[in-house]
């Protein structure tokens, strides 16, 4: 990308030091008009200061938007329908937010007639991939500026020097290096880098921002109910809530009960292992609730099929392929399964634990008549089991008869 | 199966009321010689009373064996190499014990020249399938007697009457009906049936036999280390231990810290949903430890491949196909992956939580040089990310150019 | 099933000797009213004789229906969207017809107030499973009568004797045993059993009913075009045709060019291997055409995802789970992918070969600008490949650096 | 890569114009010592001219090696054990040769103390990826030179000019542009590019190099037998042959009978669709033979498991990940399955068709007693089918009872 190629760029702008430096750098290096886009995805920061700062830089088109409901309804909930876990553990809090930012950035670019977009993600991480795959999928001819891969502000010192030269205000706490890096939205906070780089060392308590520790949580459990409709949570303790409000409440409940911490070494799409500390209080509760809701409402093979494609679905989201044909196809499969995932789950929250204490559903497939140890009035004929076993065993027996006993090959 | 077909049968005999009735019933109905086989798989019961009882029934060939080490080494550990969870949650404690019992029963049948085997599993459950698939795979021409599917002792009253008529001693606590049914071995206890049949109602505290509740667990965390070699745990807190000893110790640690309870509605192979209360204290710790050990030693795609086949592997074990070609093939894949899964994991156990607080390995693939936010001395060239993204995006852009934006199909 | 349980039964009735015997046997053994259902699925037999025969047996409610269009449109085409092959080779011609028969039988049962259904499939085959899984899924309380598993007419002699005793007309060619058994519908014919049982011996030419041999086919190739819309064929040689008409025409083309024969040893759901001779002339052409249509219109990962789930989808259909949640979920995934599978494929048919000689589509993703060996005007930047490779290689290099060269584990 | 970084480079050298220009360019641009490596993988060209040319360029270390046996034994046969097809059709003839070249190149680099390797693949294709992933996996610190991505000889004219300036002999037929590009080895030839770029146009007959057309093939079929041992072919028509000899003979048979042509639009790893004309005469016969051998010797679930992972295995090889942990893991699974894949397959080759006319094996699982339509002496109890169906139907019936008929969700 050379400077003269770009006329107008939409920058994903947080208002913080780094993206402020990027804003200025774009104006000076690319000499192009910069449009800022600042979104509330529930990261817990004021947005108005970002608007003020953008104005200070002479930005004429400033977009500040609350996307929390869209985020939860169209991204978080669809993902939770699949009980999605990356590498068996990670609830994908960062990954799932990127496509929405990319989507909105491109929509704004179309609106304001911008030919480029820019983001503040570094060249080692997954986020650059997630942003840019989204950009390219949604607007194939867009120009993408990734300052961290381009500029020479490769050290904190240089960055601060640039800020100073350009009258970019640097708050005191930003003068020193942050001891680790943070990303947050309504689903989670992640912390990584620097003091967290050694996977042999546990994170200090100060790292955690969104949860108290299990140890600090109350000695008495909290009981809640969550109601589901078509696989999505719709009410908490009987109160119908909007998606973002519901997740906000669950976050509060999770925080207070020390729920949702994860210390993980994961594999990045760009090829290396990295270590992250994640806090997903509400999401952790939601996963447990959804699994339990499905446990009585979902057919066995429907559930097993979902489980078998989940790792791939998780990988797609982690790698940044939300806006891809294959993610859409898997989503169609997943969504088809959720029609009868309706009902209520009761949970006990206690010092890091999410314990299911009851599930009920108008669509329950759990049939006491059949399963009972008691007399079942003919709902199940035990003698059927013999034929079932005999035919399931037939191929194994035929193998055994010619010397391949025990399933030998 | 008609009576005159069978000459000698090996019965999986616990010494309890039910299998004692079966023993007698086999002797009278089939008029055949009965050989008993009683195994210690860590269920926590004395075996010698079973021997005495068998003698009382005139059994001449009595096998009483301690199989705990074999159980853990050749069945539990191989399964844990895959981070196996059935339906996302269940550690398969019952399922994994059945193949060993079946195997040993068949070996004994060969030894004593028996033409039949018998078990005490009911006609509604999975265990009959697991036993019998094992029998048939290992000895295709074996005759299988499943009394619960054959006899007319279909109520507790009839069973007790038969016991009385045949001078089978019934301990007082067995006179009334047990409020639920229990299975146990070194890996877990399960409780199900009767008072546990309603999935909307949480189990009473009395149901739990192998763990104290998180609430009752100590207020202070316990820290431990587990060492792995080729994917299997070999030492606890630095002390090298045999497989069964190690699992026994982990069980104690889990019990004391309220770890490993699961209240689950699962899908049986025979077709219905059932509800089980599982306690897998040591196994729950082991799963967390193994996942964390893999997180720094296993290649990304190796791990993802394992994750993608795991649901199928779990299903095979749950359904009783341990002795099958497909389980052996998957095991070959899994075992191949574990060569470098060596090192030490540190864990904190606290009121139901298993929290990783450190992992280290001589085979670690985690490379601080590459991942660092700091200067990386050229270990990673950020500019490579651009080409990586561009080519990953190419197909999406080509789609977008002909109107299929955002991954539309 | 005991006789007195059944009041009225809907029989899948072909009008042939076997189902005529069943008809009579149901009337006498079950003493119930029999309703006949005879469907034209393109098996190439007159249906009116079946009606006459049914009348002769005193049947009052006789259903004779032409289901060819429904069969192709709602069963064959959806299956072909997935390029479905069981065990890599079999186009599932028998399997895909069974669910429709079951469905219609149940609809008729509801209409006429029947409480039971009956079919003429034997106890060793897959068809009994396919029929009955369909019945049970569509009408869970239906009673199923499978005479071949129940009666004592276990030899040809007994069957003929029963026919004679009951004045069932036996045509001369049915007096002797057929040398093999045949099933046919618009998609295929299958031949199996008796003289075909030895997989070491090739089938005689007389076995083939629906195709001439490649040797006998013309020495000059026939060229055709097939047009697709949303993944389904809609026109042949430019002429828009209904589903059944189109398949009928393709069958003729295939027959004349010796296309679509398959000699297969397959694995039945009930546990044994069996050998079948299949002729699927039109279907074989259609598969080649569809694959080629997809090759230019389907995104890479969409195609790979389809390929990865196809074996499971094929297995479900083969095993009789058409009316199951998991088949519906997979169908949703597959159907989602077909939106842009539009265009025209040109094929050359020659002595058993189906050779693609051209594909074009308004939705083509094939982009000559990008792929060209010539100057591509910047559509693709070769230097991007370097970063792409470097990051794809990163994990392998990190492994190699610690001694795991060449992808060692 | 800058010139002064490299001291000694091993070049994959064919002796043709392009790699001769590369050789000279490396000497002049990088000023480094060049070692040439020329391998016979069955491409059907003389190697000695390459040696002479290398000498002419002053190369001191020249490696000319016949790798045909290694190629077939350690790469082709392992791949065929999986019945590998990329995108349902492609036998991966090019893909499977690249890892061997990379491996040998790296071994030579280690031997001669070279710090770099170079190849002649272009920046748009898959081969660059396959070579380089192999290099990096086997020698993580190797420097890779890909001249086509680096130099400015971006047109034929410039290339020829460079050749002229450097006294590189250009044979007359190379002066003009080749109408398409060819790759060949013992498994296949591929042709692509230029006149073949339009997928709507069939390739001219002159494109084919390794097969005659079905039309030109004899009017009389040729019958052959292939014997397998542990899944690999070991004899043709009863004559035991080395791997490369066997494949050479099969190629001749395939060529003469018009077998193994494929006109394919495929999806490249680097992101675009491309069109290739492939000829794999021997491989096409081998695939049919192996599938048929497995059909009587492989357990059903073993076969289905193989089929389910095959698309991923094919993708790995196509994408260049032969030397990866995941390919090794899948290979372990595949190889485990082949122990009993022994026996003989008879085939008829006729004008493009490969028709199985018989399979036999000492390890056959095909059991006439069980499958027969005749009296089976109790090998299979038809009544077992009832229980088998009932329990397979149970979950569908339970669904139907609460309104989810027909497998509705």
UniProtKB/TrEMBL annotation, chains A, B, C, D:
Its EC number is 6.3.4.5. ATP binds at residues 12-20, 39, 120. Keywords: Amino-acid biosynthesis, Arginine biosynthesis, ATP-binding, Cytoplasm, Ligase, Nucleotide-binding. It is found in: Cytoplasm. One of its GO terms (cellular component) is cytoplasm. L-citrulline binds at residues 90, 95, 126, 130, 181, 190, 266, 278. One of its GO terms (biological process) is argininosuccinate metabolic process. InterPro entries: Arginosuc_syn_C, Arginosuc_syn_N, Arginosuc_synth, Arginosuc_synth_CS, Arginosuc_synth_type_1_subfam, AS_cat/multimer_dom_body, Rossmann-like_a/b/a_fold. It is an enzyme of class 6 (ligase). L-aspartate binds at residues 122, 126-127. The keyword Transport does not apply. Signal peptide: none annotated. Pathway: Amino-acid biosynthesis; L-arginine biosynthesis; L-arginine from L-ornithine and carbamoyl phosphate: step 2/3. NCBIfam families: argG, PRK00509.1. HAMAP family: Arg_succ_synth_type1. Homotetramer. This is Argininosuccinate synthase. The gene is argG.
